[in-house]
Write a structure and sequence with these properties.
about 10% strand; 5 strands; alpha/beta; Rossmann fold; 5-stranded parallel β-sheet; 3 domains
Length: about 300
């Protein structure tokens, strides 16, 4: 039972409030000055020391929860959160920090929550492994001070939030790619077939009945043929553009003039009946992807 006369055990005192685990309301979770921290360390003095260091950042309101071993820490992370950041000691009585990170990832998925690993001494190999397993930072306890710990926690939270944003962006990009694939399928099957029919029947009219047509009628029919050819090029260009994201870069030093010549030969049918003069200087040698450069010149 809390002693009524003890000044540090009264509601309103910072140390009292730090020991009370209160699940935040939705409104509190949206407040940027609230920091909910879970400290997992088998040393009570170390846990209290970390709380004191973090509490010196007066611009934030702190809510601390703590656990004396990894199993309790994992249970709190799952059922006592959400937390903005977890501080976990590398050497716990029931598991090490790496095992804690692995089990945490299994509970939440990757990424789950911002984590800073604290260790007795600096170890670059352990630090790299911790980061690979999902931690945002790794700090030796011997170097801890208020500024360092607060900065590490704040940066860990920011990096974690950026990870979430990047994941959401990647998910949105995947959805766009799926829509683009559906569009590509629609273009290839729903547009190219009618264009082939229009082109085929137009050529039949020209070849079989062209001599009996009025000059104006033949000109109009030729315009249809040219328009269909142009539309076909546009469709092929759309399909090529849709396939660009699926094409891995193959860098070389291709003959750019040869690529331009191929593009011109494709475009010649569109230029029939028009005065077009091609002026192409000797292009320089560049390291590039020939397929992508073909698309660039087609779009010019």
């Amino acid at each position: 039972m809390l002693g009524a006369g003890h000044p540090n055990k009264q509601p309103g005192h910072p140390e009292y409030e730090a020991k009370v685990n209160v699940c935040p309301t939705r409104q509190e979770l949206t407040m940027t000055d609230l920091r909910r921290i879970l400290i997992v360390d088998d040393g009570e003095e170390d846990r209290e020391y970390a709380k004191r260091l973090l509490s010196r950042a007066a611009e934030f309101r702190w809510q601390f929860s703590d656990a004396s071993d990894g199993e309790r820490g994992l249970a709190l992370a799952l059922f006592g959160g959400p937390f903005d950041c977890i501080l976990v000691d590398y050497r716990l009585r029931d598991m090490d920090g790496m095992k804690f990170l692995q089990l945490l990832a299994q509970q939440f998925g990757e990424p789950g929550v911002a984590v800073v690993v604290l260790a007795g001494a600096g170890d670059e190999a352990l630090a790299a492994r911790a980061i690979k397993l999902g931690a945002q930072d790794y700090l030796p306890k011997k170097d801890l001070d208020a500024a360092l710990l607060n900065r590490a926690v704040e940066y860990a939270i920011i990096r974690f939030q950026l990870t979430l944003v990047n994941r959401q962006s990647a998910k949105s990009l995947e959805e766009v790619h799926r829509e683009l694939e559906a569009f590509t399928y629609s273009v290839s099957h729903d547009l190219r077939a009618p264009l082939r029919h229009i082109s085929g029947f137009s050529h039949i009219l020209i070849n079989d009945f062209g001599t009996g047509m009025a000059v104006e009628a033949r000109e109009l029919l030729q315009r249809i043929v040219n328009a269909v050819a142009h539309m076909g090029l546009l469709v092929e260009g759309l399909l090529g553009l849709a396939r660009l994201d699926q094409h891995s870069l193959t860098l070389s030093y291709p003959d750019l003039n040869a690529i331009v010549d191929r593009v011109i030969s494709v475009l010649q049918s569109e230029c029939n009946g028009r005065m077009v003069e091609w002026r192409i200087a000797r292009l320089p040698a560049l390291e590039c992807d020939p397929l992508l450069m073909d698309q660039v010149f087609r779009a010019c």
